Amino acid sequence: MKKSHLAALIIASLAWLATPSCAPAKAATFKIIISGPDLPAPLEITDDQILNLSNVWSGQFLDNSHGHPEKPPERLAYELSFYVKLNEDDLRLMYVVYYYPEPSMKQGQIYLPGHREPWYYLNIGTIIRAGQDGRWNYAAPAWEALIKPVIAHTAGHRQSGP
Question: Which of 23, 35, 108, 150 is 20 to 30 A distant from 157 in Cα terms?
Fold first, then answer.
């Protein structure tokens, strides 16, 4: 009888440890690291307005109102790494996307990695976006209005520097 109680306690403890905490779903994006071919160094975004629209679970950085772009951009895109602070000592990479800001006033595009691509398993471990993973999507106008000038300003400094 004692062995069965011990076994049940061990199984219950292991199940509790293996169960994902609900805290990450409520955690906000803490920072975004942007890297790209025309940036002198990775750019760290900590602006509250941008981060509020960059929650990886709500997906407010994506515009779902009118389908997917007909063709992907022809240039390389920026890689955006979304970090979430799960607790005081646990800052964790939770999501990675590729962002292509259109040089004109047209809406930019965001690529969510698909099956067998880098970052896919990290992303679907956070949230699965059926019909969007592995595809180019439009960037949300409100999010893009904030992040696009920051990237352009930093990339512009490199281009005008020595």
Answer: 108
